[in-house]
Amino acid sequence: QKEVEQDPGPLSVPEGAIVSLNCTYSNSAFQYFMWYRQYSRKGPELLMYTYSSGNKEDGRFTAQVDKSSKYISLFIRDSQPSDSATYLCAMIMMNRDDKIIFGKGTRLHILP
Amino acid sequence: ETGVTQSPTHLIKTRGQQVTLRCSSQSGHNTVSWYQQALGQGPQFIFQYYREEENGRGNFPPRFSGLQFPNYSSELNVNALELDDSALYLCASSLGWAGPFDGYTFGSGTRLTVV
Prior knowledge:
The complex is a heterodimer of chains A (112) and B (115).
Chain A: E1 4-6, E2 11-14, E3 19-25, E4 32-38, E5 45-50, E6 54-58, E7 61-66, E8 71-76, E9 85-92, E10 101-102, E11 106-111
Parallel strand pairs in A: 2-11
Antiparallel strand pairs in A: 1-3, 3-8, 4-5, 4-9, 6-7, 7-8, 9-10, 9-11
Chain B: E1 5-7, E2 10-13, E3 19-24, E4 31-37, E5 44-50, E6 53-57, E7 64-68, E8 74-78, E9 87-94, E10 105-106, E11 110-114
Parallel strand pairs in B: 2-11
Antiparallel strand pairs in B: 1-3, 3-8, 4-5, 4-9, 5-6, 7-8, 9-10, 9-11
């Protein structure tokens, strides 16, 4: 079983729709949960990070963590064509030399 | 515009050859991490350098090696290239290691193709 599972998509939704992206994980030692956005031919950029279970909102984006189910989500409201990108979930344990564990990424297309 | 620059942008090498990829970290950053992102996959951690010392390593063989220089720029060297080494190689810089959060910046990567 992979440490982080993410459906690679592609996911196509019409402009203005609410988008839901999800990941599951197997290691309960993960402490921080991140969402990155990656445009074609670019490096990932951090959208949001959370530490505890619950919701965190930033503009049109909401990150949700359920540690009991080992499930994280990213919601995008009022989706725009500029949101079309690959979205990567990522997790980390924050030990001395620990590394970020990324999901495969979900390709998202917002249709005008 | 990102403060992390990587060179070259694209590279084609033959199986068995050696390659060096370069990363200039963002001004003021002293920590560099390298990742390999195969097509359709998420980035995988290769190693991290902090103040010229290796500070952690992922599950990559010894033919993947690195250096960090006094100006905190960094190199990734891969010997005896294999076809599976074809990927986007990303570096990320930060000030110290307080987590991949504020200020942790990825470059746009080097696309390596091994034929």
